[in-house]
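Homework-ish question, so no full write-ups if that breaks the rules, but can someone show me the predicted structure for this set?
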Amino acid sequence: MLKTFPKGGVHPPENKLTSAKSIKRMAVPKVVYVPISQHIGIPAEIIVNVKDAVEIGQVIAKSGGFVSSNIHSPVAGTVTKLDLIIDTSGYKKQCIVIRTDVKNEANFQEIEYPLVKDIILEPKAILQKINDYGIVGLGGATFPAHVKLNVKEGTVLDHLIINGVECEPYLTADHRLMLEKAEEIMVGVEILMHALNINKAIIGIENNKKDAIDIFKKLTQNNQKIKVAALQVKYPQGGEKQLVRALLNREVPKNGLPLDVGVIVHNVGTIFAIYQAIQHNVPLTERVVTVTGKKLENPANYWVKIGTPITDLVNEVGGLPEGTRKIVNGGPMMGKAIKNTDVPVTKGTSGILVIADDEASRGEPKNCIRCSECVFVCPMGLEPHLLMNLSEKGLYERASAEDIMTCIECGSCSYVCPSHRPLLDYIRFGKQIVKKLNTAKN
Amino acid sequence: MSEQPIIVSASPHVHSDRTSKKIMYDVVIALIPAFLVSVYVFGASAFIVTSVAIASCLLFEYGIQKYLFKTAVTITDGSALLTGILLAFNLPSNLPIWMVIVGSLVAIGIAKLSFGGLGFNIFNPALVGRVFLLVSFPVQMTMWPTAIVNNTNVVDAVTGATSLGLIKEGLLFGKTMTEISPQLPSTTQMLFGFTGGSLGEMSALALLLGGLYLLYRKVISWHIPVTVLATMVVMTGIFWFIDPEHYASPLIHILSGGAILGAFFMATDLVTSPMTKKGMVIFAIGIGVITVVIRLFGAYPEGVSFAILIMNAFVPLINTYFKPRRFGAKIKAKIVSL
Ligand code: SF4
Ligand code: SF4
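A: Not a homework solution, just the prediction itself:
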């Protein structure tokens, strides 16, 4: 039996339409729109002015605090505007608008980075560089990477886990990266192990990516420290707590972090970004994005510059198909629906999913038939039907006592409810209020 | 671009293809084998009682929702249909039609809609209907047509007591099981359904077939049916082991009366059963114990309906005390060595 987490989970249809498509390079856009808040935490502070000329990789916004991140220019060009632009969150956010200098060859050079295996930097310098080079979690949560790596003296840390699960249906960005950059990822893993002084690492990959598992099996064959583990396919295995439970049989305490059980988890995309930063001095200004959907002419995976309008991506795959009803930034389970494609790609954009026709609308909510499906699938052991009920009635104290804050918003409950109840909508709402009440108390 | 507006709703953006309606109709499908056996054994009367129960349940739901409560009519969701079938399955096939209609009114009007409709009722509507009839019309409700298969395989039905009734009566008059046994139908007859009893409860095999279908379709989990039956086997087994002359064997207890119908179809009613696996097991043990106590020591020969209704009342309590285990609860930050 392959490993997996024991409690809850669902099996949405995988629909990995693009897993056989190698990552192509998107043309450099004429204009990039770079939001200063692409990570969880404090927005970065803009340090350029309108009309400034910027180089590729130049810092254009500086980390605004500890939980924040630097932002670098994805292109060489001129800052034309500092403006409020609707980003993937649906809210207007500060953006740096840069017009690409079409005459500057640097913009169009395709650099082939050789594989560099030797790790020269000392741990401290590595961590500093990860901070400086704007690296955030690329799995979707966009948590600044240096914060996660900032381990207090005396913390016992024995495992680094590499998240190559990609349990979201449709998305194949991590899958393709693992196939195409496996050796670089291996070096990235070693860099982090060196930096954190950990000597065990496990790369967790779901069994629907057998080719990736095989590659890493080969690469880790004679490696005593780094192992690869095939996992049973089950959503939300990419959730940190679920993954740690699946791979190491350790349960992260309620309200705790993987760190509490001696583990640090990083996504494969983040690991590759770290490799690029440490070995090639390349800051995070591009990422892999899966552009997909059943009705798209030619769904594919792309290397995309941060700040590229999603419109460009959609045009590249043949435009929005007839009957498009929903555009999702991310996967179908946790992604955010966006109003239109005039929104830039950010560090957290793992995919663009276009949903057409009736697949886009939800079923009409009916009475709860108390079937317990939501309870059975909740990976956190919660009672979603109860939490929804409590949020609906405004009983936030009770919702809090029923552990509403531990919900990881995986959506398994809403996915499975046969009465189409908007469970997660209400739970999210309840969480926001409970959070406010808690801050007010402290 | 499409003319229809773009939808901006929160995640998740996909949904499984299960719906409450499909679940209800799956239960209906699972009941078909037992229904067919019933029509074969009892003839047209089984068909008529079932049809009347279904029709009146649907009509009462429609009428009450439309004219009394003035709310949305939900008769297409499959739930009233199911209540009708299950009520009929718990009635003798020769019950006067007007009583079937009264039972339906109680089931839908009182047990379901007055509590707030589907999902809000505490007690299993079909069982409330049945118990109401049993208490109000004890004579008609315990006159069972008994099916007898004669040597040409033609089925006749005559009125008589159920196996459980025969046992209870026999023991009451000081007979021993050895003396009572010849009057009881054989195990094979019980399996196939050629015994006396309510319309849908006689054929253990047909009901098991339906139960397996429900398990396969994941409409129910094994916890309730298996625990109910296992509890009954253990309890009746102990008494039978100690004094086989005065207690019927576990096999007779499982195969007769409403044990299998109750365990697979009545106790598993989604709305009125607990919402965690632990809770389900507690609930099912309760049903098993109460059923056996009523059967062995109570005034009625059969106790499944009462047992389920009594345990229904405990479900809110069970749900409060048997919660799913929260992820990471009671775990201290520590490293478990490998
Ligand atoms: S309650 Fe939260 S954690 Fe549980 S299934 Fe729903 S979204 Fe996932
Ligand atoms: S899955 Fe839906 S219908 Fe079933 S118990 Fe949960 S909320 Fe109720």
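Now go work out the reasoning yourself. Hint: The mean pLDDT of chain A is 92.
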